[in-house]
Amino acid sequence: MGEFEVIQRYFANSGRHRSDTLLGVGDDGAVLQLRDGYDLVVTTDTMVAGTHFFPDVDPRALGHKLVAVNISDLAAMGAEPAWLSLAMTLPKVDDEWIKAFAAAFSETADYYNCQLVGGDTTRGPLTLSVVAKGQVPRGKMLSRSGAKVGDYVYVTGTLGDAALGLRLCQGQVEVSKKHSAHILQRFHYPTARVALGQALRTTASSAMDLSDGLYSDIQHLLRRSQVGVSLDIDKLPLSQALRDSCDHTTAIALALSGGEDYELLFTVPENKRGTLDVLLSPYGVPVTCIGRITGVAGKLELKAGNQPFAYEHHGFEHFV
User: EC number(s) (predicted)?
Assistant: First the structure.
């Protein structure tokens, strides 16, 4: 099967058909119609075999994750997902592998109301890149640069589960049958908090998604906002599965630096905290306050209760 046959057979109608896609797969470029009063949000992510995923990973899990991690970036900016472009570098044409990957990619894109509108296919080491595009009402985007001194810091969901899932896949830990399905689900099939991100447009002062670990990721927000932060590790949201599967020290390390959470981290001014619970209650996603923004730019302070907490681990970073 050649490049164009692969595209036509598996990707020509991937995801949901959108009326604002004037031209999609099949032309030299896509033509997309942006709604009046909206801005375009664009994000790009690349996943490389052996670096971001195991070469023998279930292609359905990979298809899901590739879409979800890119949509998570749009969610962090309060955007409505709309279009995806996919560039695939494949070592060979494996019909069954591509069929399973493409099916999961399309199902996940459809779930988030996205349409695949273009991309490229080449030969080489297995590498997958997605450009995700979304729309946000003009002037309503969330960014990493809006946090102010005194704002409260929140995270959605729980932290550390996906990192434990990675260790389980690597054979580094044992997890009870009771919890293994949850842990592996969190690692292989992350959920982008799209609706919640859009709800935060009127409340959050800044936001980002967590991909490389809380400890590492939040420092990007501190740099962009020129603020510091004090985090209480006793308030980190840890699932029962994580608590039952490892000791407390390991659980905290996974929550701080494990990565792959794809939860939202956001800040809220004190005068808007009262409306937060009411605003987010329809979404059924737990939200936890884990700290507060401080005035010393770039300073990340960890504490356990009222005591300083020493920590030397860091999140994932390429080229280090």
Answer: 2.7.4.16
Q: What residue spans in the chain does CATH classification 3.30.1330.10 cover?
A: 3-137
Tell me where in the chain the CATH 3.90.650.10 domain(s) lie: 152-308
**Nearest Cα residue to 188 out of 4, 37, 82, 60:** 60
Q: pLDDT higher for 163 or 9? A: 163
Sorting pLDDT into bands at 50, 70 and 90, what band is 10? low
Annotated binding residue 260: yes
Q: Measure the CA–CA gap between 18 and 287, rounded to whole angstroms.
A: 32
Q: Which CATH architecture has domain 152-308?
A: Alpha-Beta Complex (3.90)
Would you say 261 is a known binding-site residue? no
**CATH 3.90.25.10 is the classification of domain 3-137:** no
Q: For the whole model, what pTM was predicted? A: 0.92
* Residue 209 annotated in ligand binding: yes
H/E run at residue 185: helix 177-188
Structure tokens at 197: 């991100």
Closest CA to 231 of 163, 303, 161, 165: 303
- 209-246 pLDDT, tens digit per residue, is 999 999 999 999 999 999 999 999 999 999 999 999 99
* Cα 241 from Cα 244, distance rounded (Å): 5
Binding residue per annotation — 120?
yes
Is 151 assigned to a binding site?
no
- 73 annotated to bind ligand: yes
